[in-house]
Design goal:
Elements (H helix, E strand, L loop, with lengths): L16 H18 L13 E6 L5 H12 L3 E6 L11 H9 L5 E6 L4 H6 L5 E7 L5 H15 L6 E5 L6 H12 L3 E5 L15 E3 L2 H7 L2 E4 L15 H8 L3 H6 L5 E3 L12 H4 L6 H25 L1
Parallel strand pairs: 1-2, 1-3, 3-4, 5-6, 5-8, 6-7, 8-9
Helix pairs in contact: 1-11, 2-11, 5-6, 5-11
Length: 310
């Protein structure tokens, strides 16, 4: 069997094109599994996985948990919001306690950039980064690229615009790395205050006019405004943001081509996209959710296969 070149999934930057290709091929196989009447495979019956979420998350945590259970692994869920972390326990203490329970793999979301890498260097378990601060969210980028490939046949040569709060988004950064590796052209679009200064160094185009960006692209990935990460006001009001950068059915219908609309969720309906766009045939938001389980199954399975060899 082919294997990944990495022992942990910390960021897209660490993956080779062959790694991404292998993850996608494995996800194709698992997608068939989750559409069968019996949705489980016994692949990881002897593997224990701990989900450590030091930040609130519903969709990503549920997606990982479902992926783990579909692979028949044992799952330990840990929510820091209701844990000893609140009492001053450190990340390493928490993890060591969990590892002493003989956990093979850790899926971790943490508010600090670099937390997953820090962990992977200090514990004897495979680590999957489920989002570290505003840094990376690799499985989201993989499932987004996988969803584009599924709808358009390939990612290579496609034009993808990422719209919205680029500054606070780990999804944007991971997506940029992943799409560029796979040969797509990437543009970011949003208010000047929400576009990071370093963005030009990543080789992406910048556009502040939503309609121009949509006329250019094949795919529009509409990001959520991350109000919980904004310590100052970056734009006057949500209503004003929505008027300039909200995607409506009218804007979509006035384009001279049909573009694909994506959203990593959760959607603020009526802010970054209207309900009739979210529910339209051009949106692949629900496919992204389904593909998220298949892609995460693939990542977990491929990393777990390295455990067994030791």
């Amino acid at each position: 069997m082919d294997s990944l070149s990495v022992d942990h999934l910390i960021g897209i930057k660490d993956l080779t094109n062959n790694d991404i290709d292998l993850i996608f091929k494995t996800a194709d196989a698992f997608k068939e599994v989750i559409n069968r009447p019996i949705k489980k495979v016994p692949s990881l019956r002897d593997i224990t996985i701990a989900n450590l979420f030091f930040e609130n998350s519903t969709r990503t945590r549920l997606s990982f948990e479902l992926a783990e259970k579909r692979l028949s692994s044992d799952v330990v869920n840990f929510s820091a919001a209701s844990s000893s972390v609140k009492k001053g326990e450190t990340l390493i203490d928490t993890v060591n306690n969990i590892l002493s329970m003989k956990v093979d793999m850790v899926v971790m979301r943490h508010p600090n950039p670099g937390a997953a890498k820090f962990l992977s260097e200090r514990v004897d378990a495979r680590v999957i980064n489920a989002g570290d601060g505003t840094h990376e969210h690799p499985t989201q980028a993989l499932l987004d690229a996988y969803s584009i490939r599924e709808r358009l046949g390939t990612v290579k040569g496609k034009k993808v615009v990422i719209v919205g709060d680029i500054l606070h988004s780990r999804v944007a950064l991971s997506n940029i790395y992943c799409l560029q590796k796979l040969g797509a052209e990437v543009m970011v679009c949003g208010p000047t205050t929400l576009i990071p200064k370093y963005i030009h160094e990543l080789g992406v185009k910048v556009e502040h006019n939503l309609v121009k960006a949509l006329e250019w692209c094949d795919v529009a990935n509409m990001l959520r405004i991350q109000l919980e990460r904004q310590d100052i006001k970056y734009f006057p009001s949500l209503r004003e943001y929505s008027m300039q950068y909200g995607l409506t059915k009218e804007i979509l219908d006035n384009l001279d081509k049909k573009i694909v609309v994506m959203h990593p969720g959760p959607i603020n309906r009526g802010v970054e996209i209207t309900s009739d766009v979210a529910d339209s045939e051009q949106a692949i938001i629900l496919q992204q959710v389904e593909n998220g389980v298949a892609v995460r199954m693939a990542v977990i399975y491929l990393l777990a296969s390295k455990i067994k060899r030791q």
